[in-house]
Amino acid sequence: MKRSHTFRKRDPGAPGGDRPDNQRPYNSPVRLSPPSSDSSSTEDSEEERRLLIRRRRRRRGLPSSSSDFSTDDSSEGYRSGSGDSDSEVDYVSLMNATPDSEEPFPAGGEGEWQRDDAPGTDRFVWQKRDNVPRRWEFKGTPGVKGHNLTATSSPVDIYRCFITDEFIDLIVRGTNQYSQQYPDDWVDTTAAEVNAVFALFFLMALQSTPRDKDFWSRDPLESRHVFAQTMSVDRFESLCSRLQVASEDRTGPVADRLRKLQPVVDLLTGQFSSVFAPPERVSVSDSLLEFWGRWQPTDECAHSKVKIYKLAVSDGPTSGYVSAFQISKGESKGDIPTPSKVAIDLIGAAGLFGKGYEVHTGDRYTSPGFFHYLQSQHLNAVGMVRVNRRYMPEDLQVRARGDVDSRSTGTGMLCLQWHDQRPVTMLSTVHDSDMVTVSGRSLKPKVVADFIGMKRVALSKLAKADLTSDESVNLTAQILYKLVDMAVENAYLVHRTLGGTLARRAFRKEIVRELLRDFHRWKDTVRDPGPEEDRFQGGHHVHFLVPVPSGRYRRCKVCHARGARKETRSMCEHCHVALCPYECFQVYHTVKNYA
């Protein structure tokens, strides 16, 4: 049965009717009477209308000029399509019309307008006529910003614009503080060592083995010397199980433990938006990361899910560049933020409000109320939408493949449904119902052809679930690996924007090479055992036995040289060589050829 809307004239005495301002309900939209058809009273009506607008704007602390938002085609900032519009709009309502929440959208700055034709009001009417799109002029400046980056910048220089010393310092302090809770001969880590751990993970992503421990294999057919030369597998696993972020909030239920990652999330988002400004088209998407492990050693191993919301570039050579992101632990509906609110937070974090960007969203985010709010913030919007959203038209009819039906509002919002293999419903503030030919044969609506959709950033297999043993898996560390990998992908896209020619694999290898070189340079400076003759100098005042860090067993150097396999927990602190107490320790420091 075909549904139809029934409209009736509002009673002036009803709530929200044409009553004096001092009797109007709180937060009710301001209704302006249309201009009189009498030519003699046109000037007086227009003057009264302008005075009312100024009075309302002064009451809200806004500028009294209305030049920022106008239905006039000659307006500088707001471009309207050709044709007449019957919307006498002067305010944009901030009422949230999304189906997920009844809370208001966050208030914007100057230039924010309220209108009496917001979704949910009597003047928000879907009409069966062609849409008159209204596109905000793009005022962004896309490209690389500052940081002295040029076409000759090395991959590691670009990488360090995102993974800064402050970011690494948060991890170093958090890891050392976390390790103090478990007294077991822990040796504090350093910034160079944390960078080396990330470098080894980047290298693991470029190679493949049945098990991660095989990277430290002594089998000549499987050996990869760079891993053993950088650090032992025991030290690597110990660091992987303890990587944390320095945060004041270290208590609370499991669902709240992601809050301690907020410092690095804020830091990375700030760097993402400060290094590169996105082009006109951006998209909001999300990805679900699944892990097997534990949040802390006292927990049981279990599957955990973490959702990452991202604002990324939609198309062009920098497609996939993440400008802002948020993390949410998606165990239940109550733990996942309202998608529309998350999108608003991401757009605000990237600094895109008021610049005429075109935001593409999926059906989880799109609604008439959300797009109305984006219009009020000088943004354009295109996206797929679910037909059961609030304030959607209820009389769209498409039955056979190729059928098209559309509705539009006086604010320039188009709702179009097109039957392909199944009905596809779109919402747009910058399109009409024109049809275009795609690939020279298929005919489809232009809004569908232009829609880019949700751009999912490809995260490499940086941290796998079987990275370490079940007893030492740390989910916070695995999330950190994913975030750092996202920064590496952004760095590569900046490299290509600057005119770089390296392929993605070669770019990552250069970063690994430089990070490991810095680590070995630091290790040679701090832990240099000295020349071979140094083991004979200094006597017991320099050479003395200490426990091996972390209480691990290591192979005795003297016994190994004599063909015997013997492990010990003692080592010389000066020489950094594992030795059996007494006999092997004395032989090593007194006999030149001890084999």
Question: How would you describe the overall organization of this protein?
Answer:
- The structure is a single chain.
- This protein has an eight-stranded mixed sheet with strand order 7-6-5-8-9-12-11-10, with helices on both faces. Strands 15-18-19 form a three-stranded antiparallel sheet, with no helix packed on it. The chain has a two-stranded antiparallel ribbon with strand order 1-2.
- It has about 600 residues and is α+β, with helices and mostly antiparallel strands.
- Among the domains are: about 155-250 and about 495-525, no CATH class; about 530-590.
- The longest helix has 23 residues, at about 475-495.
- It has 14 helices and 19 strands.
Chain-wise SSE layout:
Blueprint: H1 42-59, E1 78-80, E2 134-136, E3 143-144, H2 155-162, H3 165-179, H4 191-206, H5 225-230, H6 233-242, H7 262-275, E4 276-277, E5 281-293, E6 302-313, E7 322-328, H8 339-349, E8 358-361, H9 368-376, E9 380-384, E10 404-408, E11 414-419, E12 423-428, E13 435-438, E14 442-445, H10 446-450, H11 475-497, H12 504-526, E15 545-547, E16 554-555, H13 557-561, E17 567-568, E18 570-572, E19 577-578, H14 583-590
Parallel strand pairs: 5-8, 8-9
Antiparallel strand pairs: 1-2, 3-4, 5-6, 6-7, 9-12, 10-11, 11-12, 13-14, 15-18, 16-17, 18-19
Helix pairs in contact: 2-11, 4-12
